[in-house]
Amino acid sequence: MSQQTFSKHHMLLFIRALTPLHVGAGRGVSIHVDLPLQRDEFDFPTIWASSLKGALRANVPDSNLRKVLFGPEPRSGELESSPVSITDARLLLIPARILTGVWSYATSPHMLSQLNTLLSTMNKGIVSVPRLQQGKAVVSKKDLLLRDARGREYVTVNEISFEAVAGGDETLKTLGNVLPDELRKLVEEKGLIVIPDEHSRMIVNRSLVIQYRVRLKNETKTVEEGPWSEEYLPSETIMASLIICKDGKMRKEGSGESKVEKISSAEVCNMLRNSFRELNYTIYVGGKETIGKGLVKLYFM
């Protein structure tokens, strides 16, 4: 008996937060905030694959295309599976405060290596990851630097200072080779600071936005509930995910169950990408949509 084989097609998905982003993990899982962000196994903010796939599905305008890409609704009783698989969206670049301007992008060897893991599945060139000693950072732009009394160059990121070392040009160049042009230009403009892994969680946590809210009674405008705290990734945060498309199928218009058109894995990926074109690749992800949070732009590569 011959075994049926299926082709697979891969796409990188970069996610840029246009407004502060809250994809929550629920109450009671954190001691420092009431409504924390989802986090990965290394305690970095992330978007779990289930949340990301749900947001993509909800924003595909065409209901028939939605079924082709993401399968039938869970309660429909149909057993067809989705030809689209999605990984967690990992944190890649996060805005951080600097003393020589307003903000620059911060990352770490760990965060860059997570991107390289995704790139390796696609046989793409990887990003140069610098080896950093404690207390030192790689900086891509000279105008991000300060000099101390001894003339040594340093950079201050979220109120933590690091001695600047060479290597930023190579990291920025190789990262630019895999980023979409719009993001590459943004990173070149704002600059890139690669901080050592032992400081990375602290820098990331200092970039997060903690917002306190209350709910008011309509009649008296007095507090009905709260205050409670919510955790957000800042606007301009960049995350990365991998999309794996398998061969799919689509029923022809007005046909019975037997008339099914097969779709290649590459076509499935193209259909997914093109389904967001009329939205200018801009959708809401996570909660707090009605107060302007969670607006992101998608970049399929």
UniProtKB/TrEMBL annotation:
Entry keywords, A to Z: Antiviral defense
NCBIfam families xrefs: cas_RAMP_Cmr4 (TIGR02580)
Domain CRISPR type III-associated protein: 15-297
Protein name (Swiss-Prot/TrEMBL): Type III-B CRISPR module RAMP protein Cmr4
Coiled coil start-end: none
Highest taxon listed in the record's lineage: Archaea
Taxonomic placement: Archaea, Thermoproteota, Thermoprotei, Desulfurococcales, Desulfurococcaceae
GO BP annotation list: defense response to virus
InterPro entries in the record: CRISPR-assoc_RAMP_Cmr4, RAMP_III_fam
Natural source organism: Ignisphaera cupida
Record flagged with keyword Ribosomal protein: no
